[in-house]
Amino acid sequence: MMTTRNINLLLTALMMVVLQSCYGNKDGDITDNLPQVVGVKGISSDTYTLYQGDKFTLTPEIRLSEGADSTAYDYRWIVGKGEVISTQRDLDWAVSLPSGYSMANNVPGTFVVHNKENGLEFRQTFTFKVLSSYTPNYVCVYEKAGGTIEWMALQGEPTAFSRHFDDMIARISPKEPLTGKFSGALLSGSELAIFTNHRPDYGRCLSIRNASAEDNFLFNVGEYTGEVATKMYKGTAPTIDIHNAVFGYGATKYFICNGTLHVFNGTDSKLPVFDEQTWVKSQGVKQAMSSKQFQRYKKATFVLHDDGRVGCYHVYNDEMEYIKADGQDFRLDELVGCFSEATGKSANQSYRIYLIGKKNGQYKMYRFYVNYLKRVVQPLKSEQTMDLDATFARSVGYWWGSFGQRYGFFTRANSIYRFDYYEMNQFDTDKAQQLITFPNEEEIIDVVPLVKGSGLRDEDFCTVVMLYNKAQQRSSLYVYETATGKKLQSYDHIIPGRALYFAKCL
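^ that's the sequence the OP posted. Answer follows.
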């Protein structure tokens, strides 16, 4: 039987063998002073989005141990299933899809720093996906001067769009222009639906990604995938009226069709298919409204019915409940605006949501409490009602809030204002700060606050403002830091028409 002392001696011997196999056969190599790579900076842990044919450059910063000879190293950049794309220290690669991978799928990459003298290697991993030249990260739908509807593919992030392609319908389907009055748009992982009043199609569905045999998706970027009236709608109504279309990251997507509110899973990769009986949340619906910070953690949606009653639901597969205030049905004539509280909390945690409503010519701001018990959402609780000056309320274009800080915002004319709603018991317009003012010739079309990543954290990324210049008949995108109003970027008059819709692709 081996004694404890013998076992310890055996383990020590095995450890020496392991160390010699890593560092060489010389006892002198087993030392803290062995030349080695300490670390590599300049390679992101986030997934890179690359485009076929573009240049992908990386300049890593390599930290060596004290006394190490930088000339003793060589380098390899490896992607996919072992394909070496460079043997230089700095990467300068004409992007192409590695063998065995599909467009838009994550591809592994490794930067290898190899010591030619002792054989040691340091490996820094990264991931990327390759998209076609037109594949968008964001889309913008707009109306051209002649009345046709177009869309733009934007690549990169709002703080630094790298490329954009306007008039995508004219590029891909020049003989099939999209006409009619715009009534909304809806995104999925693969497609964009643009709703209009044009009969008999009521709009078109188009691809925002490349075809994939693996996913049984047969359309490349920009190609029509079908008409709204036949691809999405399977009912029997002689006319279709779709409006109030909204998509929330990780929450739900919804729209009203012929007075019926249809609600769908927010993570579906394809556009929804529905009729009068499917995916119905409520009927006799006049309006539906969510916070502009609508995402997986802040997902209360208000539903105004033709009889004035207001309901609320939270997720696509929950029942809608009518709101009670002082034991009575909560009623309004119009939903005017909505914003949710910034809490920093994760899913199924309590928060407050503010609704601006109109009734009998009067405007009020209502504060509601959303509570969860054992991950189950409870009926909305009314906490506070604040009067708003009617003249002021009528002059406001949009209301929204910050994801990460307890600020609310609104637009009036060509300006954006900020106010602090923490422990607010009455709304005082004089305390609102004028944060941003645009030139008089620029009309604010809409405001889109963006959350970081896929909405897993209640944290601001930036806010995008769509502006329209009537004289030039072109629109701009203005990007700023949500809470402070600091300008981050602007894309002046890049959109050849009146902007209608801007959204981030999944």
